[in-house]
Amino acid sequence: MLSRLFVVLTLFISFSVFAHTETDCASAFTTLEINACLNEELQQKQDLMKHYLAAAKQRYHDETQVIEAIETGQSAWEAYKNAHCDSIYIIWMGGTIRGAMSLGCKIKLTQVRTHELWSSYLIFPDSTPALLPEPELPLD
């Protein structure tokens, strides 16, 4: 019994050390490295989008209908993003590039959504400065 516990503990520690290794995205070469870097980029883009979404809700915090509409739109967008990028994954299902293609799709759509949140809720029709800086759009 004690030997089993030792083996499980050793595997757990080994996995933890392996799981926390950093990937140098500038020199990522393998599928796992590229996907790890794309996942990291996606997380950064999602965090930025959440920041813009929170700012939009804050701007309209006294207007319940607007907040509900923003949340409904965000939920619909999430469903669209997942369905669309899942279709990209299926197109590339026969190759190891499928993950990168799907992640790239999610990154691009997240950037576009962040810009849409900015232009819809965080700018003003006059010369009043926007509540947050204009987020970047994907190059392609």
Distance between the termini: 58 Å
Number of domains: 1
Strand-and-helix sequence, N→C? HHHH
The percentage of residues in β strands lies in under 5%
Rounded average pLDDT: 88
Low-confidence stretches: 1-20
Query: Helical element count?
Result: 4
CATH class: Mainly Alpha
Number of strands: 0
Secondary structural class: mainly alpha
CATH topology: Substrate Binding Domain Of Dnak, Chain:A, Domain 2
Helix content: over 70%
Shape: elongated
Radius of gyration: 20 Å
Major pleated sheet: none
CATH architecture: Up-down Bundle
Throw out a few tags for this protein.
140 residues, mainly alpha, Substrate Binding Domain Of Dnak, Chain:A, Domain 2, disordered N terminus
Explain the overall architecture.
This protein has 140 residues and is mostly helical. Helix content is 71%, strand content 0%.
Short account of what is shown:
The chain is an all-alpha fold and 140 residues long. It has 4 helices and no strands.
Fold blueprint:
Layout: H1 2-19, H2 31-59, H3 64-91, H4 98-121
